[in-house]
TrEMBL record:
<feature type="transmembrane region" description="Helical">
    <location>
        <begin position="73"/>
        <end position="99"/>
    </location>
</feature>
<feature type="transmembrane region" description="Helical">
    <location>
        <begin position="161"/>
        <end position="188"/>
    </location>
</feature>
<keyword id="KW-0472">Membrane</keyword>
<dbReference type="Pfam" id="PF01594">
    <property type="entry name" value="AI-2E_transport"/>
</dbReference>
<feature type="transmembrane region" description="Helical">
    <location>
        <begin position="253"/>
        <end position="279"/>
    </location>
</feature>
<comment type="similarity">
    <text>Belongs to the autoinducer-2 exporter (AI-2E) (TC 2.A.86) family.</text>
</comment>
<feature type="transmembrane region" description="Helical">
    <location>
        <begin position="319"/>
        <end position="347"/>
    </location>
</feature>
<keyword id="KW-0812">Transmembrane</keyword>
<dbReference type="GO" id="GO:0005886">
    <property type="term" value="C:plasma membrane"/>
</dbReference>
<keyword id="KW-1003">Cell membrane</keyword>
<feature type="transmembrane region" description="Helical">
    <location>
        <begin position="20"/>
        <end position="37"/>
    </location>
</feature>
<dbReference type="InterPro" id="IPR002549">
    <property type="entry name" value="AI-2E-like"/>
</dbReference>
<feature type="transmembrane region" description="Helical">
    <location>
        <begin position="286"/>
        <end position="304"/>
    </location>
</feature>
<feature type="transmembrane region" description="Helical">
    <location>
        <begin position="43"/>
        <end position="61"/>
    </location>
</feature>
<feature type="transmembrane region" description="Helical">
    <location>
        <begin position="223"/>
        <end position="247"/>
    </location>
</feature>
<keyword id="KW-1133">Transmembrane helix</keyword>
<keyword id="KW-0813">Transport</keyword>
Amino acid sequence: MNNQNPQHSESSSAFINNMVESAIRIGLLFVLVVWTYDIIKPFLIPVLWGAIIAVALMPVTKKLANWLNGKESLAATLLALLGVLVLIVPLILVMGSIYDGIIRLTEVFQAGEIRIPGPTDRIAAIPVIGDKLYSIWSLFSTNLEQAITNYLPQIKTAVGAFAGILGSGVITVVMSVISLLIAAAFMANAESMSKAVKTVSIRIAGPKGEQWASLIAATIRSVLLGVVGVAFIQAILIGAAFFVFGIPAAGGLTLLVFILAIAQLPALIIVLPVIIYVFSYMDTTPATIFTVWVLLAGLSDNILKPMLMGRGVEIPMPVILIGAIGGMLVSGIIGLFVGAVVLAIWYELFTHWVRTPVGQPEKADETALNTED
């Protein structure tokens, strides 16, 4: 008994020392991770977007590089510059138009030359909101000062909301430009980046890591097709109605519909005011045709997304769709891709678990590896 006690005491002391030392190391590692996250947090979203854009545009970059005698760096730079121009040029035009409109409105208001035409009887005939809209419009057309006084809180709220949307749009464009530049850097070093991603994937997930890396890339391209592709089709359908029926500023309105659709906001935000405007000056028949046209086009994303989202991957479309929508509700637009990727990985894990024979995990893994080879 006397000989065992010292040994037992020494083993207990060693165990406690190991536990304390491990706890200190884990605590220091946790602190290091938290500090690292705080440092890279401002760059996290642009880098994620850059990676998503790089994965989505990689096939286009390779095709362009073939035309440029294999110069992938030049191809990536040209695509990034094209994307920056597509983002900045419309922003400059819209900002200039808004600035000119504000200056002109200020001059007209100071000179007392504001004349708002009164509403027609068709406005009052619009179901549900017609009477209220007619009375508000009439007040603004007959007694502008009184109307501004009566609706000053609502006007301030609307102006503040518009300014917030405008500022948010500018920030979004700036972040998009930064993301495009990061994506160009990723695409210019595609080969080394691809090897690094595969190495890390295998290190994290084992032999199936490379397969999952390919799955993530395919899922991102699938979601991008379901988002940008549907937004483009929806903008074309609604824009065609704007041009056919001669809506003023049809091009600008079509661009706004495209931007809203990419942001996963309903196109009806733009469409409904236009419908009200159309009913104010068109006959009932063409106004009804226009309304049916743009409403069907505005709701077309409910049909197009299930058709396009999930193409190119073996994951069932409902899994991709649920992941994209759920991710967007949790994390915004970036969640469209993250949510779809997470559910796709979980689906693969679940199906692999179901296919693995009970009590024979190693044999199942070997079979899977032989199948992949």
